[in-house]
Design brief:
The strands form 2 sheets. The chain has a 5-stranded mixed sheet, with no helix packed on it. Strands 2-3-10-5-8 form a 5-stranded antiparallel sheet. By secondary structure, the chain is an alpha+beta fold. It has a single domain (about 1-135), classed as Jelly Rolls, CATH 2.60.120. It has helices at about 20-30, 40-50, 110, 135-140, 145-180, and strands spanning about 1-5, 15, 55, 60-65, 70-80, 80-85, 95-100, 105, 120, 125-130. It has 5 helices and 10 strands.
């Protein structure tokens, strides 16, 4: 299986797509089409695009590995990924989610500096816009208003995922309690 590292320019299996003037318009279009950024105005989207880097990956590439500490958020523009957690035997994994275009992965690492909580593998050729921890911190220094807006978007997303996970946990606990 391929492997990539998001904290340097030479990633195994992940190809950086270099920006030019036409790409800047494409970045804006990609960001505008993603629901989580719908509250951003045109200037915010233009500013955000300067902090992002576009990458492509073939199917089978490991984008994150559970326990790794690189900080970055991937905005999935095209493709499909599988989120996996290591099972008790460590030789196996449990698929816990499928991520499609318009979704993000890795956003928690921008805020908490903790290791990735899951392994994420491309299951189709994919395109990402990546915001690294370094670029996020640069954004917070250079454009505090945009940085705060992005933090609020991430906080809302994490809150929503926690609520969904809590609902699933309640369902599992109710099922287990009905068995006993």
């Amino acid at each position: 299986m391929g492997r990539c590292k998001m904290n340097n320019i030479n990633k195994i299996g992940l190809e950086e797509v270099y920006k030019d003037v036409e790409d800047q318009d494409n970045y804006r279009k990609m960001i505008t089409g993603i629901h989580m950024f719908s509250e951003l105005n045109d200037d915010d989207i233009d500013d955000l695009s300067h902090y992002l880097t576009k990458y492509t990956a073939e199917s089978g590439i490991e984008v994150t590995k559970e326990g790794d500490t690189e900080g970055y958020m991937c905005i999935v523009v095209d493709g499909k990924l599988e989120v996996r957690k290591v099972a008790a035997t460590e030789d196996e994994y449990q698929r816990i989610a499928v991520v499609k275009a318009g979704r993000t992965i890795g956003e928690m690492t921008l805020l908490d500096d903790l290791p990735h909580s899951a392994t994420i593998v491309t299951v189709q050729d994919s395109v990402f816009l990546v915001l690294t921890k370094e670029m996020f911190n640069e954004m917070l220094e250079e454009n505090k208003t945009l940085g705060i807006k992005i933090m609020k978007i991430i906080a809302r997303l994490v809150s929503l995922r926690l609520r969904q996970t809590s609902g699933v946990l309640v369902d599992i606990l109710q099922t287990q309690n009905s068995i006993y």
